[in-house]
Amino acid sequence: MIMTIAHSDTGMNFKRFFPLLYSLLALAAIPLLVSCSSRHARAANNSISVSVNQQTGQYTIKTSKPEWTFQGSVGKPFSNVTSQSGNDEIGDYEETSFSWTSDNSYTGTIRWYSDAPVVIFTLTTPNGAEHIQSAFPDFTGFPRGMHHYSFKNDVFSPPEFNKLTQTSTPWLFFNNQDEAYVLSPASDFIVSKMSGDGQHMIASGLNPQLQDLPSDFSHKSILVVGKGINHTWMTWGHSLMTMFGKKRPSNDADPVLKYYGYWTDNGADYYYNYDK
């Protein structure tokens, strides 16, 4: 099942509405132990491995169930490659960090969890930036021949299967075996931007019109891999809600949730067409 969500403000564009969408798709995470071959930090079943190539600036995420590879590059050598472990809102994690210089000085971090099929990417500008041209992750290697799904940048954010909308919408990819993955921003939703064609490149970054980023500004993106389309959506939503300290409300938490109703705004069945 794929959910679409409507809002009542016809003047509200997709980017303003999107943080609500990010908070509503959630239930429970599925266990998937992961590892990193960059510093040989390994979890029990090696379902996911993450590696970086210091000389080429390439980073690779491999999954064994399903057998997928995601690969990208910053196009410059890495420096200051380090690894550490810790715990955050989602759970115990391992991560590797590295630096590079292109249009700006950047620090990248890849974080993965021992009990969730979740990878968090963080792009930081240590010295600030007038503009950010880099996206992270920027995958040129990823599972091909998948169906894709996003949300249009239009009133009510309708579903889009024919093309990938180049806004902050999450991008879902799935195959006929119901194996799926979601790539999306995980912070700064209003100024985020997904880019790519789903055939040669997929990337998560910031709107290139964004200016004057401060020192140590960080932007996050999230990759979730799973079996089952709805299950993968729920894992993605649960992870984002957990990151931001949000709790799923009960089904009768307020009148909108508790009672049947209808909208009277543009596009609704009862748009000034009252039942006499």
Can you walk me through this structure?
The protein has helices at 14-24, 229-243, 255-258, and strands spanning 34-36, 48-53, 58-64, 67-73, 79-87, 92-101, 105-113, 118-125, 138-141, 147-151, 159-160, 171-174, 179-185, 192-196, 202-206, 217-227. With 276 residues, the chain is mostly beta strands. β12 and β13 (179-185) form a beta hairpin. The two termini are 35 Å apart. The model is unreliable at 1-46 (pLDDT under 50).
What's the gist of this structure?
The protein is mainly beta. The protein is built from 3 helices and 16 strands.
How would you state the average pLDDT, rounded?
82
Percentage of residues assigned to helices? 10-25%
The general outline is: globular
Percent of residues in beta strands?
A: 35-45%
Read across the widest sheet, the strand sequence of neighbours is 5-6-7-8-16-13-12-10-11
Radius of gyration, in Å, reads 19 Å
State the end-to-end CA separation: 35 Å
Largest beta-sheet characterization: 9 strands, antiparallel
- Describe the oligomeric state of these chains in a short phrase: single chain
Instruction: Give the SSE string.
Output: HEEEEEEEEEEEEEEEEHH
Structural class, by secondary structure, is mainly beta
Poorly predicted regions are: 1-46
Beta-strand segment tally: 16
Number of helices: 3
